[in-house]
Structure formats: C-alpha cells, structure tokens
Amino acid sequence: MIGLTLVFIGISLLLYVLLGGADFGAGIIEIFTGRKGINIISKAIAPVWEANHIWIIVVLVILFNAFPVVYSTVTMYLHIPVMLVLIGIIFRGTSFAFRYYDPYKDRSHRIYSFIFELFSLLTPLFLGITLGAVLLGDITVDNSLPFYERFVAPWLKLFPFVLGIFIVLLFAYLAAVYLTGESHDTRDRRQFARYATRLLIALIFTGALVFFAAQVNGLPLFTMFLSSWISISCTIVATLLLPAFFFALKKELNNLMRFIAGAQTTAIIAGWFGIQYPVMITLKDASPLTIYNAAASEKTLLMMNIALFVGLAFVIPLLIYLFRIFKFSKNEEID
Fold first, then answer.
1. Which of residues 49 and 296 earns the better pLDDT score?
2. 2-316: CATH class
C-alpha cells in the first residue's frame, strides 16, 4: 500500500509543478514583459489556472491521511513559510480573478497586477524554502526551546533560500517554454524563447549553488547525490536533453520544447526523490520520519488509495477535456 501511495503523491506533485508551477512562472515572466505580456499571459492561464491547483490539494490530502505525523510536523514547525505559501496562493488567485474578469479597466488593475506578480514570485520562493527546511534537518521537536529556535531557525538559512530561488527559476522556465506556443506573433514567441534560454542557464547555475549552500549549512548533499544511482541517472538524462531542447528552440517546435522541459522537470523531481528516499523529514534531535515509521495503518492506506482511484477516474478525464478545449486545439493551430 505504501508503494501505491507514493506513486499517487509523486504523480500529483509532478503535475502540480508542471501545471500549477507554470502558472506561478507566468506571473514571474509578466514582471519583465510589461502590459503586452499581461494580455498574452492572462489569456493563456485564465481557462486552466484554478484546475491546475487541484494537484496541491491532492498532495496535502495524501499527507494528512497517509503520513499524519509528517503533515503535523511540517504544519507546526514550518508554519511560517507554509502560511506565507497559502497566503500567496490566495492573494495571487484573487488578484488575477479581479483583474481578468473585472469589466471596468481602471487604475485598480495596476494594483491587481502588482499583487499577482508579487505573490507569483514569493509563493514559489517560500515553497522552496519549506522544502529546503524539510531536507536540511534543522527542525527540532524540543518544545522547551524558544520560539525562534523551533519555528524560525530551521528555515531561515542559506540552503532553503537558495533552493527557493531554484524553484522560482524552474517555474519561470516552464512558463517561458509553455508561453512560446501561446502567441501568434513571431516576435512574442521569440521573446519568450529568449527568456526560456536565459532561465535555463540560470537554473543550471543555481542548481550548482544549491549544493554549495547545502555544504555551508552542514548538509552533505553532494555525498547523498553520489550515493543515489537514481539521482545520478536523472541528472544525466536532464543533461542529455539540453541539445534536444536548444534544437527545438531554434526550430520553434513548441510542443517538443514543452515535452523536453517537462521531461527535465520530471528528472529533477525524481532525482530529489532519489536523494531523499526513504526519509520524508530529517529532524535535528530525533529519528528521521520515513515512509515506513510515519505511515498510517494499512487499512487507512487501502481506503485512501481506493478513494483516490475513484476520484481521479472522474477528475482526470474532465481535466483532459478541459485542456483539449482550451489548450491542445489552440496549440495545434499555432504549430
């Protein structure tokens, strides 16, 4: 049952990064494109942005039911960055809805756009900070310690912030790649292609900085990486895909670019899984929480997996239909 649960949570997390992450990235890209970019980005994400965020809900539901100790530990000791992520999702979504659906175009739209762009940047940053704190292992469950030591010190370090920047760049990279196929204007497509190239280079550079920051904070991430054949294999795959990506970029093969960017992102997440497995949270003064000692009972896992099967059997066909209407047919016309 645990294996099937991990498959569900892994696929849901991947889909959230590929879809919801690209939505956040679109808001980041909008910071640099100005008013012209607002129109393209708004039309690109308006039909699907709410549906994309269903996957983070699935991830949280699985954690709450299948790994309640992990869920309670993260939401208690990392409640500050988690709360900032949730606030960012709310403010970003509401500001986008007001901006896009408001029939009156006035000065308030500038405020909506500012809030949308700001929280498109800050939300993935604090999401990465939360993940970095989970991996770093400075979370303490000693309730006799002061507030700062328990709730601030575990995430207010170099490694979580560098990982947060990496997540920001990854989301922006995905958005730039996806947006190359959202405009009929050649200049706009080439502009997004340039953003994708620069962000990919920045992503590679920041990936190296993640290992350096981990070493500074006492986490032997490079040693953990070398000890995982999964992580090494995923890095090789992501690297070998680089020439194919630049070829697709040069030939303006939009769908191929998207597939390659998705494959690279999948390799990154799988590589992180290879480093982390079987640990879910590393604790400073207690045994780590793993998929084995933090899992719920077999009956709970069985009932949850059945519910996920039934629920996704309804949801996935509807999502495919949604994307088919608003995305796939449009991209076929552009290509």
1. 296
2. mainly alpha
